[in-house]
Amino acid sequence: MKHTLLMVGLSLMTLTTHAEEPLARFGLLADPQYTDHDPEIGRNYRAGKEIIKSTLERFNQAERLDFVCNLGDIVDGRIKEELPEVVDVFKASKFPVKHTIGNHDMRKQSDEDLQKAFGLKDFNYMFKINGVRFLVIHSLEVSTLRPKGSSEYAEAEAYMKAHSDRKLQKYNGMLSAAGKRWLDEQLTAADAAGEHVIVMTHVPIYDKAASKSCIFWDADEMFKLVDAHPCLKAWLSGHEHKGGLAVRNRVLHKTVKGLCEMKEPTGVIVSVYRDHIELKGVGEETDYTFKF
């Protein structure tokens, strides 16, 4: 009898251990803003490459990460040739690397330059890990950082003019109509498949996880879109260097602190489970558990 109880106990322990394995686990870092320039406005530009490398070294200590995601602004954007140099630093990661596009990344680079540097065919893209759907979106798809003469630039200028009372910042932007349709289609498919969705992008949409000066121009419209989809569990971003965290309408909004203003390697390791998300802070970040 004791032997039977022991075996049952061991079986339950095995099941419990298995159940606690995350569906997906990944690392996030944001805003190193490297350039060969003296520090100013609280940003240690010249340290950008080294702090990326040292943050990746911290991530490399993990037994399992499915990937590492750069949340944008790996360069300050003053010198065109610096972007591919900084992308090379990510080779120090022993885990696959995903990239989002930041406003500073766009300052000197064409779409073709960015696609080549980051190895991307599309700036809005999807991948899955164990039933978790990851959506990487280009939060500056429509912005005045797009090439002059492009439809995206014209749309951005028109939007800013039509909403001049809101004092919209040129370092923010929004998705195009096609980008929103793609996002809605992805969320609809995930709802139907019973998948969790994690969005990763440069610009936040929730000011309580960042600030009103560092969010999507059309954040209210974006909320109408995403609120219709229970599959969305987290919106992960950079851009606001002080970082932030808030929960809105059953969705975790996490803004990762900007490396250019950190004194030590800093980022977040995210573990996605069936009923919760755990954030493990690295350096100047902190831990947090979000239950669905």
Order of SSEs: HEHEHEHEEHHEHEEEEEE
Main β sheet profile: 6 strands, mixed
Helix content: 25-40%
Beta-strand content bin: 15-25%
The fourth-level CATH homologous superfamily is Metallo-dependent phosphatases
Q: How many strands in all?
A: 12
Mean pLDDT: 93
What is the count of helical runs?
A: 7
Tell me what the structure shows:
By secondary structure, the chain is an alpha/beta fold. The chain has a single domain, classed as Metallo-dependent phosphatases (Purple Acid Phosphatase, chain A, domain 2, 4-Layer Sandwich), CATH 3.60.21. Helix content is about 30%, strand content about 20%. The chain has seven helices and twelve strands. The strands form two sheets. A six-stranded mixed β-sheet has the order 3-2-1-10-11-12, with helices on one face. The longest helix has 18 residues, at about 1-20. It is globular and about 50 Å long. The two termini are about 40 Å apart.
Key traits:
single chain, alpha/beta, Purple Acid Phosphatase, chain A, domain 2, 7 helices, globular, disordered N terminus
List the topology elements.
Blueprint: H1 2-19, E1 24-29, H2 48-60, E2 67-70, H3 82-89, E3 97-99, H4 111-118, E4 125-129, E5 132-136, H5 151-162, H6 177-193, E6 196-200, H7 219-226, E7 232-237, E8 244-248, E9 251-255, E10 267-272, E11 276-282, E12 288-291
Parallel strand pairs: 1-2, 2-3, 5-6, 6-7, 7-9
Antiparallel strand pairs: 1-10, 4-5, 8-9, 10-11, 11-12
Tell me briefly what this model is:
By secondary structure, the protein is an alpha/beta fold.
